[in-house]
Amino acid sequence: MPYSLSKFRGIFPAALTMFDRENNLDEEASARHWDWLIRQGVDGLVIAGTSGEFIALENEERVRLFRLAREVAAGRVPVICGSGHYATKLTIELSQAAEQHGADALIVILPYYQKPYKPAVIRHLRDVRQAVDLPIMLYNNPANSACVDLNPRDVAQLVDQDVLHMVKSTYETVVPVHDLSFLVGDRMAIFYGSFQAALEAFAAGAHGWISGILNVAPKAAKAMYEACRRNDVAMGFRIWKRILPLVHLYTHQQIGPVSDLATYRSILNFWGLKGGYSRNPFYPLDEAQERELRKRLEISGWMDPEHALDGIGDA
After folding, report:
1. Which residues are registered as beta bridge partners of 45?
2. Residue 293 belongs to some domain of the structure
């Protein structure tokens, strides 16, 4: 294994990209949010991932974010840059730009929309690996990418061949985490990548968690991760139940048919942290949705994030 993966552990928010009201990229607001996440104690950042709206970014804008992330992180935490594109040529160009601007690793989404067959997906990853000298995280998200998934044995084979070094396993189930932990858990970094079962993923052998929800629950998620590292499953479960009200806002559509990113932005605004905007067609919450969100945050104790875990240590 040519890389040390020990720093790729723990809580890595899929960091929001901030835009202004006119849908322009807002580097200053992005930098401010990323710095806040680092000061909250996260272990790393994923830049230009799904929650960073890579699909809405021009390639030049992604490169600007790669450069900005290195400046903001300033060596405090590792930065994983989202360089995946449908086209192999463009994935390589973005990956090389991320490497040039000091990324610690790359996260490469499955080629999306056109549904290439598995041999082509594997060749795509091999070609990217040959073009860069950074650890590569496979973003195994077949539901969103509309691509064939790579099963744990496919991934393990690519780890053995030094093509892949990490994975973001984005499934509701943690079965792939179990299998990868058994097959190659000592030779790759395994990250769970969904909302649904982070606690179970840590129990299954995940080394970390990447998710958009970590933009608004970084401290709680870090506390749950640390509890699991101590083998304190009971504490981890208590913390997870405190996080679930935030999860359910989206998974149960409790404030209506709105994107998770718009919800996180409104939560940050409620906290006085300036959540910015997404690029349309991810529109902001309307007034009625914001009223409902505020009510649910007040009921669940999340209007004051500094006290969201108060009493969690009680039996």
Report:
1. 79
2. no
CATH number of the domain encompassing residue 97: 3.20.20.70
User: Which structural domain range is residue 84 located in?
Assistant: 10-230
Strand order in the sheet with 208-211: 10-13, 208-211, 189-192, 166-169, 136-140, 105-109, 79-82, 45-47
Residue whose entry in the numeric block shows the structure tokens 């409790």: 254
In a domain, 5, yes or no: no
Nearest to 209 by CA among 44, 76, 7: 44
Give residues with Cβ within 8 angstroms of 96, minimum separation 6: 131, 132
In tens, the pLDDT along 1-34 reads 578 999 999 999 999 999 999 999 999 999 999 9
Both tokens assigned to 297: 């945050």
Q: Between vectors from CA 89 to CA 83 and to CA 93, what angle results, nearest 5°? A: 50
Catalytic-labelled residue, pool 3, 89, 118, 168:
168
| Interior/surface letters 214-236, b for 16+ CB within 10 angstroms, e for the rest | bbbbbbbbbbbbbbbeeeeeebb
Q: In this predicted model, what pLDDT tens digit does every residue of 95-119 receive, in sequence order?
A: 999 999 999 999 999 999 999 999 9
- Residue (of 132, 128, 167, 127) closest to 150 by Cα position: 167
pLDDT of 311 > 50? The answer is yes
The total of structural domains in the chain comes to 1
Is 86 considered catalytic here?
A: no
Q: Decide if 274 is inside a domain.
A: no
- The average pLDDT across 250-255 equals 96
Catalytic pick among 113, 139, 222, 250: 139
14, part of any domain:
yes
Q: Based on the residue annotation, tell me whether 192 is a catalytic residue of this protein.
A: no
pLDDT higher than threshold 80 for residue 229: yes
